[in-house]
Design a protein that fits this description.
Elements lengths: L1 H29 L7 E3 L4 E5 L5 E11 L5 E11 L6 E10 L8 E5 L5 E3 L4 E8 L2 E11 H9 L4 E6 L2 E7 L1 H13 L6
Antiparallel strand pairs: 1-2, 2-3, 3-4, 3-11, 4-5, 5-9, 6-7, 6-10, 8-9, 10-11
Length: 191
């Protein structure tokens, strides 16, 4: 009887170990639901192949600030490129301020030779207070050919009107380096 019990106990331990390994393999294969993205530019942008619709690009948030550093603007871009550089680009901006919410009336960009072009009227997505900062998130749209012009000179600026207040945002030092990488690795694909 003892001999049967010892053999049965050994087989139960091995069954448990095999079951545990199979369970780990099963759960690890179910973790990633998101389609595979090509991570590029060290967390600067991602590309997704979308079949007949072309390639979707997501440029992760870039930081701009006012001269006195009182307001931070974080801007990201998403677009689907097939064969025309006149495609729409969704432009999302977050305005981060310590004193109050900023309500955006208009948004414009300076590109090559300080030529200014406007985005669509910003659409308010949400407002929230986080860590003593007032965050306002907007979405707008620009054309890809205008966006490439915007980034071609590293001195691009974003202009935002909020009632009687006018804000001018310039890229922070890190963003300037990111723009150089985008100009080297992403935007030449659309020429």
């Amino acid at each position: 009887m003892n001999r049967y019990f010892i053999i049965n106990a050994k087989s139960n331990k091995s069954s448990i170990a095999i079951g545990f390994v199979l369970m780990i393999l099963f759960f690890s294969s179910c973790i990633s639901i998101r389609p595979g993205a090509q991570k590029s530019g060290k967390n600067l942008y991602e590309t997704f192949y979308t079949g007949d619709s072309g390639v979707q690009y997501f440029i992760k948030p870039l930081n701009y600030s006012t001269d006195d550093k009182s307001v931070l603007l974080r801007i990201d871009f998403a677009f689907r490129y097939l064969d025309s550089n006149d495609c729409p680009v969704i432009t999302n901006i977050s305005l981060i301020n310590k004193s109050a919410f900023i309500m955006a009336d208009s948004l414009s960009f300076s590109g090559i030779d300080n030529a200014v072009f406007k985005g669509n009227t910003p659409k308010l997505l949400f407002k929230e207070v986080r860590s003593k900062s007032y965050i306002t998130r907007y979405s707008s749209e620009v054309r890809l050919n205008k966006l490439t012009d915007f980034f071609k000179n590293g001195k691009s600026s974003v202009f935002l009107n909020s009632g009687a207040n006018h804000f001018v945002f310039h890229p922070v030092k890190k963003t300037k380096r990111h723009i150089e990488k985008l100009n080297r690795n992403v935007f030449p694909c659309f020429e």
